Amino acid sequence: MNSTHQVEGVTLRLASPDISKGEWIGQGEVLKQLMACWLVVDARDLPLTPRLLGTPGIGKTTLAISGARRRGQELYIYQCTADTRPEDLLVTPVLAESGRIAYHASPLVTAMIRGGICILDEGNRMNEKSWASLAPLLDQRRYVESIVAGITIHASPDFRCAVTMNDDESTFEIPDYILSRLQPTLTLGHPSREDELSILKYHLPFADDQMLNLTVSFLQEAHSLNLDFSTRDGINVLRYALKRIAQDPDHPISRDDVWREAIERCLGEDAADLKTLADKRSQSLGGNQVPMGLGDFFFSPGDPLHPDADDDDLDEFEEEDFDDDDDADEDDDRSPF
Ligand SMILES: Nc1ncnc2c1ncn2[C@@H]1O[C@H](COP(=O)(O)OP(=O)(O)OP(=O)(O)O)[C@@H](O)[C@H]1O
Ligand SMILES: [Mg+2]
Asked: Which atom of ligand 1 is nearest to the CA of 63?
């Protein structure tokens, strides 16, 4: 049974804390930076709410959980989504069996009340309206106003918060007045080979050295080619490969085949050849190409009708066009459509 708490005469039903382990391995500096944000160095000082930034699966949530565990405080995680409403973040009214309205405090509000730590996970998925409801919490005021329950809730001095964000594009633009309350930005990079091996060993202690090394080599090559395969991808590939190996001990599949299958099934067929994939990606990002103008969308390169074509091309075109009607086929590929 969850506990309750009274605020301005309203009874709030509190959320349950998260109990996951969140062991952080390697990269001690970024963990230290996070711990520094949550430190209070003087009675007049306030903690900071940092932004933990990095690609999916790089370890942002794990880092925040581990920081909370080190401080020995209760941990609450709020998973932000594109349709999170302010009341979801704060207090939600729920129709109780008695027919009366019960007010449920979110993990964030529960952390504020109980002096815990709240991780706002994937914060950049949340829209501005919801962020706006947190503006007073994230500055020196340290309170939120629940419109639904009609109350103001003050954060305990022990309350700490961090926001994780992916640096991908499937997200909202967070307004500057919110970003200025979410400082500093702690950026996570990929782990070194040694750290990544320790992370894999920690999560899959039953994996043999050969499979562990294959996975780490794959991940390190992907990191060096700037491909976005993460430690989580490595854990999933290795986990699947180990299951396939264990599945039929009488007719073992060759390890090479298992490895290839695991890579392809988890990460896609292109992942089997990282160099080619990296080349393809850089080309599709325009790595080797000159920037495109509007004309490039409608006319192929060298087309004399291209607005950027120089006069020499136009002369050639005029000659070709008027002296031979059999050229119709060749002209087809000049069609803009
Ligand atoms: N330094 C690390 N120590 C221990 N485990 C790690 C570390 N880095 C990554 N992991 C493991 O990798 C996996 C992915 O980590 P996590 O879920 O924290 O990533 P994330 O950056 O929050 O991803 P997403 O953006 O998808 O939420 C987890 O299983 C996590 O435990
Ligand atoms: Mg996460």
From this structure: 18
Residues 6 or more apart in contact with residue 5 via CB below 8 angstroms: 11, 12, 14, 105, 113, 114
pLDDT, position 102: 95
In the β-sheet with 91-95, what is the strand arrangement from edge to edge?
4-7, 10-13, 101-105, 91-95
Q: Structure pTM?
A: 0.82
Write out pLDDT tens, residues 171-203.
678 889 999 999 999 999 999 999 999 999 999
Q: Could you tell me if the CB of 24 is within 6 A of ligand 1?
A: yes
Indicate the top mutation candidate among 75, 199, 204, 239 to test ligand 1's pocket, ranked by most ligand atoms within 8 A of CB.
199
Pairing of strands 160-166, 117-121: parallel
Mean pLDDT, the chain, whole residue set: 87
Provide the pLDDT for residue 22. 87
HSE-CB at 41 with a 13 A cutoff on CA atoms is 4
Angstrom distance (rounded) from CA 337 to CA 332: 10
